Structures are given as structure tokens and as C-alpha cells.
Amino acid sequence: MENTYFHLWQTALWGAFCFSGAVVLATDTARPVAPAEIPKQLTLADARRLAFANNWDLLAAKSDIDMATAQKIIAREFPNPALSLSSMKLNVDGHPSSTRAGNGFWERSYDNVLAVNQLFEIGGKRSSRRASAAASYAGARGRLLDVKRLLDLAATRAYIAAVQAESDAQILRQSSQSLRQEAQIAQTRLQAGDIAKTDRNQIEIAAERFELDARSAETTATTLRVALETLLGSTHPTGDWVAVDTLETLTNVAVPADETAPPEPRPDLAAAEAGLKRAEADLQLQRALRIPDPTVQLMYEHEPPDQPNTVGLGFSFPLPLWNRNQGGIRSAKASFAQADNAVRKVKAQIASEIESARLGYQDARNRWQRYRDEIRPRSEEVRKTVSFAYEKGGAALLDLLTAERNDNEVRLATAQSAADTALAAAALKAALNVPEEGSEGESATSGKAGDFKR
């Protein structure tokens, strides 16, 4: 017997060790293997891929899936039986308890009772609990997918903002270089006696101001790159990478033109509907709790010498006299009404987001096309004309500086409108729950290379 118990304990300890090892391995597998490594040449598709693999919020949402899975396992389990052992009729006044069979513990006239109690859930409690756990799992999955949808949008916005800041810095550097060239022309005219020294100095001051603005824009671009690296899960962001995609390629993306509703239910709506199903299952559970659960008892009794071996069967349940679980039912009804209102609210928000995103995209797209096709070429033509006229002495310094500033502002506004279009397109696709496509192919086949550059 002792060997048998030892073997059972050994088996149980070994099983517990194996189970704990499996839990540790599963936990380690869920963690990222290494910090995110940002490539030196980063595309939007790479940024999204890294965000999906290493973002902290997304990893936390994945943990919610594990917890919901654990709740499903718990809901499937039956109540454990209760084992009880009792000895009664123990003499404490010195009278002997021995019987004709002997004076051993098992032969004495003690009343030893071994009982097993098993609770049985009735009234649909277990099925309601399982339905609630299944709805909780569906809600956790919906929230995970919604976090991924919002993360996709956030990564796209951060990438576009970094690209726009770098584009602004490049435009300001080009404006500064253009004025430096004008300053050389002014130096030639100064030596010829055509202009005063103050004219050349004003041009150089304007060029230096553009250089300072370019440095500020470069700092902003680096800060935005660092922010994107943090979003991608990098533990040591430096901003030392170059965006492969340009504003032109990011603007020319396929956007659903006629869809007014998501082709598939959005994950936030799916999560809200799962919450409603869970509230309904919880309400059914609270109503079922009014029905008392019976407990069946199986007993073995040993009381020598008259009743050495007897068995018994018992049955018990609580009497629902004072507590009919009215408070739990009322609370569950309020939760159900709240979940129903949440579903209605999410549906209204989805419709509002889609319409607002569509209007914003149409406005941004129209502005971008006008800047690109009309305003930007005319501004470039005016700048070149005034520059040529100033070189030949046919234009005043004020005209030159005004043309340079206007052209710089127009090119910055063109870049801003392109970024707004790309952002609006991403917002519309997120509202419609349309996944982003890889940008590698787009960058090679679409976009105009000279929209911002001279």
C-alpha cells in the first residue's frame, strides 16, 4: 500500500512539473523573441508588419484572448465532489469502546462515516455560463482585431507624418539653394553697379531663414521617426532610417469609391455584439440561479458491533425562501440594456466615421489634384520668369523675394495636401475595415516624381 501511494505521489508531482513547464514554454512563446529591429530602408508595408509583430498594445490584446480561452475552459468544468470523513461516539469518560470483535480502532464502537457529496447544476446554469464564456472569447477576439485595425491606421499616419516632415525639409533646402544662386547673380550685378549691397544682403538673409526652417523641419522629421519606432515596438528608437515610400506613392492608393458600409462587420461592432450576447447569457444565468441546485450524498457508515457496514443515500438543496436572486437579475437586466445601447452607439459611430472619412478624402483629393495640376506648375513658372527677369535687370528685388516665398509656400502646401490625401485615404479604408495593401509595388508603378522637386 505504501508503495502504491508513493507511486501515485510521484506520478502527480511529475505531471505537475510537466504542466508547469508547458505553461512556461507557452508564456515564453507568446512574448516577442527580440526587440524590433528597424531596417535602414523602411517601407510602409515594413512598418505595418513590425507593428503587428511587436506593438505593446497589440501584445496586450493577444493576452486577453488567452484569458478568454481560460474562461471557456473554466465554464466547461463540472463542480468537484466533496469528500468528508467523520468519527463519532468517541468516549471521553473512560468507558471502554471495545466490542466482541476486538479493541482495535476499526473494531471499536465508533461511528465512522465516509461521505461523498456531489453538486448538480440544473436550470441551464452551465449552458448559460458556457455561452457567456464563448461570447467573452468572441468579444476579446473582436477587440484584438479592432486594436489591429487602429494600429494599422496609427502606423500609417505616423509613417506619412514622418515622410511629410522630411519632404518639408527638402523643399526648404531647395528654396534656400535657389536663393543662394540668386545671391550669386546679385553679386555679379553688384560688381557691375546695377544694384546696391543691401539687395544682395536681403537675398542672403532670406536664404539663411530657409536654411533654419529646413533644420527645424529635419528635427521634426527625426522626432516623428522616433515616435514611429516606438509604435513599432522598438526599445531603443533612434530615428536613423530612411522612408522608401514618398508622398506621391502614398497618395496614389486604391480607395473604395462607392462603398457606404464595411464589406464585413467591423471588429468593434463584432466586439459590441459579442458583449450583448454575453449580457444575454449572464441574464439567463441570473434567472437560473433562482432554481436551487441539489446535492446528492453517498455515505458509508461503520458502527460495530450492530451496524458494522451500512450505506446511505442523501439529497439536499437550499430552500429559496428569503433570497430569490432579484438583485442579480436586476443588475443583469441593466447590463443587458447597457450592452444593447453600446451596439446601437457603435453602429451610429461607424456610419458617421465612414461618411466623415469619405467627405474628408474627397476634399483632400480635390485639393491635392488642383495643387499638383494647376497651382504648382503656375507658381514654378512665375518663379522662373521673375528670376530670369531679375537676372537681366527687368524685375525688382521685392518681386524676386515675393516669387520665391510664394513658390516655397505653394510647394509646402502641395506636400501638405498630398499628406492630407494619404491620411484621408487611410482613414477611409480603416472606417470601411479595408486592409492596407503593400506599398512596394505601388512605389514602383505609380506617382509623379517631380510634383514637389524642382
- Coarse shape: elongated
The description of the largest β-sheet is: 4 strands, antiparallel
Separation of termini? 93 Å
**Radius of gyration, whole Å:** 38 Å
At the first level of CATH, the class of the largest domain is Mainly Alpha
CATH topology of the largest domain: Outer membrane efflux proteins (OEP)
As for the number of domains, it is: 2
Strand content: 5-15%
Mean model confidence by pLDDT: 84
Give me the CATH superfamily of the largest domain: Outer membrane efflux proteins (OEP)
Quickly count the helices: 10
- The residue fraction in helices comes out at 55-70%
Q: Quickly give the CATH architecture of the largest domain.
A: Up-down Bundle
Uncertain ranges: 1-34, 438-454
Number of strands: 6
Q: Can you describe what's shown?
A:
Helices cover 66% and strands 9% of the residues. By secondary structure, the chain is α+β, with helices and mostly antiparallel strands. It folds into two domains: 52-77 and 126-287 and 334-445, Outer membrane efflux proteins (OEP) (Up-down Bundle), CATH 1.20.1600.10; 80-119 and 291-324. A hairpin with a 3-residue loop joins strand 5 (295-303) and strand 6 (307-316). The longest helix has 68 residues, at 125-192. It is elongated, with a radius of gyration of 38 Å. Residues 1-34 and 438-454 have low confidence and may be disordered.
